[in-house]
């Protein structure tokens, strides 16, 4: 048996085994690594997978090769970057370029700068260290070559095979042959109404099609194979191409499918849960406040319009009959400040800050309104309670233990550690040390270092940080600083479109 016969037999066995293992149902979709695959009907054979042929990065998953996200390195001639895997530790993701490999045969040595073709691959002569120059070739998968005598050609000739372009190349140690691209060509629709004129264009669902001349057959449509969003085709929901609507919080656009009538293609965002009480129905576009949250009336799919509200954490309002108030009134509740607000239901009530107030010693801890003192790193002011007694109201910063040696500083200095402000304080024994706020910092942000003059404020001024109110107070060293409430603020919700 000749070598050619053995090769042909091996290819037939491989193709047969592959065909049985990879059959599918027309219309199915799957991913193979980073490539999209669609199940298509073959002409005169069972349906098979047709996949894009993008080159996917190969990820090294050895435990010893784990890394920190953002790191980079070189693996031979390939650059690698450390990426976060889904549900697994960070790993190296590298490109898969073919790095030069020395051909050791004496007859294959060359002069640096020479180039040649090895079948459909380009080779260039390169110098590698102290070794002799060798050929470094690309490693493209070359198309199978038709070796029939009638299919030989002249180098430089071109032709089309279905939607693929072919170039005549010189093989190494073999006659000239056709090297063709391997684009997946749309199977020809043989219906009379689908024949076309070469050069025509059209859209098939979300794919673009071009009319091309087939070899030995009429012109046909060759289309891209992008994965198109599923279209809702309920009879009652048909539409005109180009129409738009909202489906709950998702936006929809009417598109033409490859088969059947036009239908709605919608985004797939998770929408806030709606209050569905009969008494809470509304007219689309209406707005209202639900406690401290803003609400908008939206149209649900297959249900009446409902209120969609934000989910901010609102301070509890005291609604005892004896404690009702007029909107806008203010008072102190222990060391907390209260404001009279209107809720979505029921009478107005007090909404108060939630600072932890010190336990009151009724005798020794009495003070004069306006007095000031410090407890560790916190500032305390004497305030009057509703019952007429006076108490100390203090900020609630978490004070750190002072390093008395290496971290000593000059009284009055300031600095920033992550998102926390630090002040240099003088202690009773004459030593100095840093006392810092203890906010929970998220992802580190590079902020300019704070100087004392940037922290100054005017006594009596207020500002907000998230949902907390801050008041400018005077310190005992004739400087000023912000003292803020400690309300737990709702975390913002970040939404992304699926499929992007």
From TrEMBL:
Disulfide bonds join 67-82, 110-125, 153-168, 196-211, 239-254, 282-297, 325-340. Pfam families: Pacifastin_I (PF05375). The record marks 96-97, 139-140, 225-226, 311-312 as: Reactive bond. Residues 1-21 form the signal peptide. Keywords: Disulfide bond, Protease inhibitor, Secreted, Serine protease inhibitor, Signal. GO terms for cellular component: extracellular region. SMART domains: VWC_out. It is found in: Secreted. InterPro entries: Pacifastin_dom (IPR008037), Pacifastin_dom_sf (IPR036201), VWF_dom (IPR001007). One of its GO terms (molecular function) is serine-type endopeptidase inhibitor activity. Residues 64-102, 107-145, 150-188, 193-231, 236-274, 279-317, 322-360 form the Pacifastin domain. Belongs to the protease inhibitor I19 family. This is Pacifastin domain-containing protein. It comes from Aquatica leii.
